[in-house]
Amino acid sequence: MANSRASAHLLDVTRTVSRAHWQPTGIDRIERAYIARLIYDPAPLFGLVRTKLGYLLLDDSGCQSLLEHCETQIWQDADLLSRLLRRSDADRARTETGLRRIALDRATPARLTAMLKRHLPRGTAYLNTGQTQFNDRIVHALKACEDVRISVYLHDTIPLDFPEVQTNASRLRFKQFFGRTDRHADLVLCNSEHTRSRVLYHADHLKDDQVHVVMPGVPDIKLGTAPNGPWSGEAYVMAIGTIEPRKNIGFLLDLWDTFSGPDDPHLVICGRRGWMSEDVFARLDRHPPNVHELSGLPDSAMWALLKDSCGLLFPSKAEGFGYPAIEAIRLQVPVICTPLPVFREVLGNSAIYADESDRYLWRSKVEQLTQVRRGQSGEQYSVGSCLVPTWQEHFNLLFTLL
């Protein structure tokens, strides 16, 4: 097992804190994997948390407690301060209450630099994996510390490449984040060659040798109990992910409008409702035949449901990495997806590619997959494998770069 060459690690864990009570997205999984691995590295780990009042600094044990809270919600009460500051987010109020009690140190924004100087040894590696809170104040504080190396993980450049599928606020937020990364990062990590090429395309200051592909790992998939529903015992396919424009769920609803028979396949959409998709939400609220919407499933239950399905449908307009497709292939579940460059790179020949414009091909492939499940005549699909590293392989490579 390789270890980091840095004298210490400072990991921004604000995203994990803000989403401790949610089912993790792909980026959430990556940040949590970093916490879990860096806790056990010989170099000490510090976790930086932005709160309403300023900043908290966690040590290794504090970061471990944060991970435990993400899994089992160990902090169940919120103090008066958290209740006042987080009136609309009781879960985050409880999380921040627990963290304040165990924090190594805390500081107002004006005292951030002093706090970091008190604790960070020379040669610390700063890591931002959550694409959040990399602001001018953070940059100034890091550069005031001795020999700190700034590393940022960029998961995609979708807000720059496809602004039409993002809100105005998210576009502006990412543009500012990317600009600071371009100007101040010593090292940029990317999840694919496709993302790396887009980062270099948009960057004005980053050099080629500063931007590296360090593909994320895939965790062990632990199957739980699949939820029961109208799809149980029937042929069904799944779509997984937040319901938002780039996931193209409206395309699948259009496709299911072409199915009209009682024996047609079921579509199970697994993911919370996101943004800019009011028309899709309205259609889902009308409960189309054989279409089912599930939200808030634990990963183990979602994976069990996926394992029992006929296939995963992934008609995305843009993706950073596509964890659900990789997890499906790990479970030997067929994947039908759009021919995005990142899918071609990561999934290779393991997926069935179909352009969004070819609705007939999508329908025929869905029918073939469900016929196989029913034992009817149909093309048999052999699901291959994709070249995605383990998390240990990921960190072995990362530690050669820090």
Brief rundown of the structure:
The protein is an alpha/beta fold and 402 residues long. 41% of the residues lie in helices and 14% in strands.
Written account of the structure:
One of its GO terms (biological process) is lipopolysaccharide biosynthetic process. Pfam families: Glycos_transf_1. One of its GO terms (molecular function) is glycosyltransferase activity. The two termini are 16 Å apart. The longest helix has 17 residues. The model has no long low-confidence stretch (mean pLDDT 93). The strands form three sheets. An eight-stranded mixed beta sheet has the order 4-3-2-1-5-6-7-8, with helices on both faces. A three-stranded parallel beta sheet has the order 9-10-11, covered by helices on one side. A three-stranded parallel beta sheet has the order 12-13-14, sandwiched between helices. It has two domains: 220 residues, 3-Layer(aba) Sandwich (Rossmann fold), CATH 3.40.50; 139 residues, Rossmann fold (3-Layer(aba) Sandwich), CATH 3.40.50. It has 402 residues and is an alpha/beta fold. The chain is built from 17 helices and 14 strands. It is globular and about 70 Å long. Strand 2 and strand 3 form a beta hairpin.
